[in-house]
Amino acid sequence: MNLTALIVDDEPLARERLRTLLAIEPDLEILGECTNGREAVAAVKKQRPDLLFLDIQMPELDGFQTLAQIAAPLPAVIFVTAFDEHAVKAFEIHALDYLLKPFKPARLKSAVARARTQFASKKSSGDDASQRILALLEERAAKPEYLARIAVRDRDKVHFVKTTAIDWIEASGNYLVLHAGKENHVLRETLTSLESQLSPKDFFRINRSALVNVDRIHHVEPAFNDEHVVILADGTKLTLTRGLREMQERLRFA
After folding, report:
1. Helices then strands (H, E): number in the chain?
2. What CATH number should be reported for the domain holding residue 225?
């Protein structure tokens, strides 16, 4: 049975590796590649692939947000993720399969073989694929799960930074710097996207480019022109442009 697929990943090397490994698979046609979620939404609408090789951690729209914007019927999804295996378990039963980065070629081959088997069987229709993903999105909406760790790539390694270890997060374009004690980690992500994945009880956005772990806030002091400065436990000073009362209310319930 012939299958069509789209590759969605913001990292060029990741897309290239998938494309190269999938090129040797018989009866699998790669319709194209997308570098972000918005491109993926448009491509799925236009080309209606059978399969979606979908990265989860992408700037602007992550994998789950991308799926939420795709109209039914949805393609079957093979998640490609750097999340640890425990996080994957939360959605494993809904996806056709998942690949945990860095995956081995044999693991990819197994996922493609599973796709062929599922599509050849009566159980795996397009409606079944849609129902799997829609059930996942409904569960996430009903019970929002916030990140406990953030996957950060450093050359050929992937580090998992605990969110509780982060002091504050600094935005610079489409990149972020995670300040965690004496360590700084660079992440390709927008602040708005990451903020939506962090618990609002634990992190508060004090200005346009800074998200602060509320447990690290030591005190707030006045500055010029009726502005205020947030002082963290390590002495870091950050400008507060949000209302002081709003911050006080947030800290009361944190």
Report:
1. 8, 15
2. 2.40.50.1020
Residues 95 and 43 in one domain: yes
CB 149 within 8 A of CB 163: yes
* Domain end call among 110, 142, 174: 142
The predicted model scores a pTM of: 0.59
The gap from C-alpha 205 to its chain's centroid, in whole angstroms, comes to: 19
Q: Of 142, 168, 187, which residue sits at a domain end?
A: 142
Answer yes or no: is pLDDT of 30 > 50: yes
Which domain, by its residues, includes 228? 149-252
Are 120 and 93 part of one and the same domain?
A: yes
Segment 215-218 long-range contacts (CB within 8 Å, at least 24 positions apart) = 215/164, 215/254, 216/167, 216/168, 217/251
Residue type, 37: G
Q: Cα separations (Å) of 214 from 123, 167, 198, 217?
A: 48, 8, 12, 5
Write the burial class of residue 60 (CB in 10 Å: 0-12 exposed, 13-18 middle, 19+ buried): middle
pLDDT tens digits for 184-229? 999 988 888 888 889 988 999 999 999 999 999 999 998 887 789 9
pLDDT for the residue numbered 91: 61
According to DSSP, the β-strands at 76-81 and 97-100 are: parallel
